[in-house]
Specification:
Belongs to the DapB family. GO terms for molecular function: 4-hydroxy-tetrahydrodipicolinate reductase. With about 260 residues, the chain is α/β, with parallel strands linked by helices. The protein has two domains: about 140 residues, 3-Layer(aba) Sandwich (Rossmann fold); about 100 residues, Dihydrodipicolinate Reductase, domain 2 (2-Layer Sandwich). Strand 1, helix 1 and strand 2 form a beta-alpha-beta unit. The protein is globular. The mean pLDDT is about 90.
Length: about 260
Amino acid sequence: MSTKVAIVGATGKMGQLAHDLLTRTMQGDEQEFEIVAELSSKDALEKMIGADVVFDVTVPGVSQSVVDFAVTHGIDVLVGTSGWSGDRILALEHRLAQTPTVGVVIVPNFSLGSVLATAFSAMAAQFFDSIEIVEAHGAGKVDSPSGTATRTAELIGAARAAVGPVSAPHTDQRARGQQVASVPVHSLRLSGVVAKQEVIFGGVGEVLTFSHETLSPTSYEAGILLGLRAATEATGVVVGLDKLIDLPRLLAHSSKAATP
């Protein structure tokens, strides 16, 4: 039996990408996914009723109402919209504690390469006191910092819990970026850019940079399918594609394999 999907934000770039991707999976005798509703950010949310999972790729001002409606009606959700801060996620976790059969998977970035770069950044965070993020997206992106940059900064902050906040001088100057979990984040919005992020670590006599650039939106397809599959099985709130690929286990396995 195929999983029934409602795409909310279907008229946007990510919504159109999801439509094309899922339409391809609907070919043949065995359909893994079936699109049963496609909504714009302004459509009545009742149109999503009957879906097994809602794929939310709207805008930050709409996303929370989409998730609230879906949870109220017992529908699992895959969130691909930016703007889900730690506080909003915590409030959602409290709510889902009352509805244990519903799952919400929040994925700031569906690119596997981006997820790995963020994970490596969190690993390096405790070794450098000077850390900044520069992220770039297309000129039409309505929010900043990006969800990926916010997620990266929050993970860096958590990794540094024992050593304290990063060193960020001259925070009174607007050009120093917006601080997220003490990490300065600089957002660029440029025509011709899909997505790019650099996490820069400054140390004594050295600089370490983790850089990831999305060259085509097709890089999101594997992550979208992974997220949709996980959303139908999840309970509570799951944040990050890294949780779906069990990155801690993979890193532990790689470490053991490298041990002579």
